[in-house]
Amino acid sequence: MEEEKKLAAAEGREEEKVAAAEEVAAGREEEEAALAAVVLKKGPWTSAEDAVLVQHVRQHGEGNWNAVQRVTGLLRCGKSCRLRWTNHLRPNLKKGSFSPDEEFLVAQLHAQLGNKWARISSHLPGRTDNEIKNYWNTRTKRRQRAGLPVYPPEVQLHLAYSKRCRYDGFTPLSSQQQVGSHVLSLDAGDAAASARYTTARPPPLDLAGHLTMGSRPVQFLAPTPFSAPSSPWGKPFARNAQFFQFPHSSPVSPTTPNVPVHAVTPKLSPGYGLHGGDHTRLPPMSPSSGARAELPSSQLRPAMPPAAAAFSGTAPNDPPNQATFEAMLQELHDAIKIDPPAQQNREKERDVPAAAAGDTHGE
DNA sequence: AAGAAGGACAACCGCATAGAA
DNA sequence: GTTCTATGCGGTTGTCCTTCT
Questions:
Q1: Is-contact A290 A282, C-beta < 8 A?
Q2: Is the pLDDT of residue A188 over 70?
Q3: Contact between the CB of A138 and strand C at under 7 Å
Q4: What whole-number distance in Å separates Cα of residue A63 and Cα of residue A222?
Q5: What is the rounded CA–CA span in Å between residue A76 and residue A36?
Q6: Can you give the distance from the CA of residue A250 to the C1' of nucleotide B18 in angstroms?
Q7: For the whole model, what pTM was predicted?
């Protein structure tokens, strides 16, 4: 049926072409222009087309993409022009493999945002939503096929923990929770940025801001029981073999680029481990201020259940005894179990990001 | 060496939304 | 208030290349 439609449409186009060609032959330039407007090219762009588009954007700026075809005669629809420009031609695009930092960032952002590629890409300068989407889908597919977790242990821990907090009627902390000398809140700029989001769904996180925490390098959670050498995450993730190795055992790879992932994450520690002897642990996934503290970090001690505190590496006010500790380990371990592919697929079908599963805020 | 399988990437399609007319 | 247009976004498909058998 669909094929027949396409066939019919194609035949129709052919007839139109013939008719139009005759008219052109008769010198009807208007019809020729109309024909050109109808028969737009598809498929890969040529360098000549790229040059035309670049020249057009230089002269007229971005936007008004439908005018490109009219002005330049380029046989591409506006949509195609915009896509070509944003994904390939615009300046400052970063090409090539994702760095470990970028991969971790994508994992964290995806855990919080789900398939919001445009928003994820806004955290990775130089990367396009299409690029990130392709990257993520490819790796997700591969890892699911291999029975490996989609998210790194640190991210999984937070996913599990956020679920547990909901089960326990845990009340998220305010955004002004003091953490040692840090305040998990946005500065004025971040607050302004957060205001751009709807109140129904606060900004997922200002990861970059939290990663830096002023001049401090980012530090992720201490190794969890799940990141034992037998953990699937002990295996290389994606093309970067050093990616997602354990913080306590993975020195910064000499191959790790020094180029910051984000304009404001100049000191992101590629190893995600303790850095510079400062054992203050910063939240890997703290929501932005303004944002609900749905994923309390190890630093949010006052309201943190003992289990999480035990994993956080911080000393809880009421340290559990050994039996309790092991029970909590088991509990969290169960909670963090990798969802079987079927379940993951179901979640995907609902288009509900794992981190937002059970999210009552909705969107 | 040839075909199959998988990965990476580019591009298209349909839908949603915002702003203009 | 409605319609139209431009734009953006996410899902999907197609193509090329590499690796494996």
A1: no
A2: no
A3: no
A4: 47
A5: 10
A6: 48
A7: 0.51
